[in-house]
Specification:
This protein has 176 residues and is an alpha+beta fold. The chain contains 7 helices and 7 strands; from the N terminus they run H-H-H-E-E-H-H-E-E-E-E-E-H-H. The protein has a single domain, classed as 3-Layer(aba) Sandwich (SMI1/KNR4-like). Residues 20-154 form the Knr4/Smi1-like domain.
């Protein structure tokens, strides 16, 4: 039996619930990080703002929300010791095996403190701008794609054969 091809993106939600882009917020995020955002990330946020439910129930955060989430995680990072940060995580090659890093920028809310992030501080094996799964309940940090462009390409070609899009495309994140 052939699987029905279904879109990973909920385009109806995008049309109905997208907030407008905010270039000033994106510039402010980049200045706060002290690091350039990858061109594909900037292009996405030049085209849209927040999109509720875009990833079949998970939200694309606005640039403002990315900055707020980053600030919230930085408060944890600054409060914890290095031993605390290293004791609760493992990671795929290319990702630092810690709870949070200052150059991880949450941009998709996976609900409950988990998120997808753009990694602007990978290890030597990683790629600047790689997309990772991280967050409160994500003990093993997972590499999902080497860039936002690759992530979106994988998502766009998902055929629905393995359940929910985030898990079908990128594996069972909760079991990683």
């Amino acid at each position: 039996m052939a699987m029905e091809k279904r879109a990973y993106f909920n385009l109806d939600a995008r049309a109905a619930q997208a907030s407008p882009p905010n270039p000033a917020a994106l510039d402010a995020l980049e200045r706060a990080l002290g690091a350039p955002l990858p061109a594909d990330f900037k292009a996405l946020y030049a085209a849209t703002g927040a999109i509720k439910g875009l990833f079949n129930g998970f939200d694309l955060l606005s640039a403002e929300a990315c900055a707020t989430e980053h600030a919230n995680w930085m408060a944890i990072y600054e409060d914890w010791t290095l031993d605390d940060l290293q004791s609760c995580s493992s990671a795929d090659p290319g990702i630092h095996p810690v709870y949070y890093m200052p150059r991880w920028i949450p941009f998709v809310d996976r609900i409950g403190g988990d998120y997808l992030a753009i990694d602007l501080g990978p290890t030597e094996e990683g790629t600047y701008g790689q997309i990772i799964a991280a967050g409160r309940d994500t003990d093993r940090k997972r590499l999902l794609a080497k860039s936002l462009t690759e992530f979106l390409a994988k998502a766009a070609t998902y055929d629905g054969s393995r359940g929910h899009a985030l898990y079908g495309v990128f594996g069972e994140l909760e079991q990683a």
